[in-house]
Amino acid sequence: MGNIELRQGHYAPAADHLRHSLTILQRLGSPITEAHALDTLGILHLHLGEPEQAPTYFREALTRFIRTSERTGQALSINGLGEAARAIGRPAEALAHHTDALAIAAASDARHQQARAHAGLGHTYRALDDPDLARIHYEQAHATYTELGMPEAEDVRAYLAALRGHLRRDRP
């Protein structure tokens, strides 16, 4: 329910459902599912405009994913750390996290997380005023999201359209 509420933009009910789920999962001893709930709480805080709180949840989720050797989950949480770093205004951290997430996702064939990492790198390079590198990563994200039939493809298409006319021609 928490994920559904989050996707619909109903953040207060999402938080209630996620925290309740987390309590139950901790009692059941389900570390992977618990990690997913923690990761989703991190995403919720990003949507609430509280990026300073999100890394705590992403790190807790990452710890559980590492403990259980869940590589796709590791990419998931590391991408979350990148998104939080960018939102807080730490682009160097964002680049490092998304680059790490991309490597893990590629090694584990987690295509959705590869696309998410490329989109994160695109956002960060755009924020760093490097539209050429932003475009390269957005194109890769768009291709992967499109191949997977994911709605994020449309968002990335819009980011690419916004970059048109802003590409620097002084690079080889």
Automatic annotation (TrEMBL):
This is Uncharacterized protein. PANTHER family: RAPSYN-RELATED. It comes from the Bacteria. SUPFAM superfamilies: TPR-like. Pfam families: TPR_12. It comes from Micromonospora deserti. Gene3D superfamilies: Tetratricopeptide repeat domain (1.25.40.10). SMART domains: TPR (SM00028).
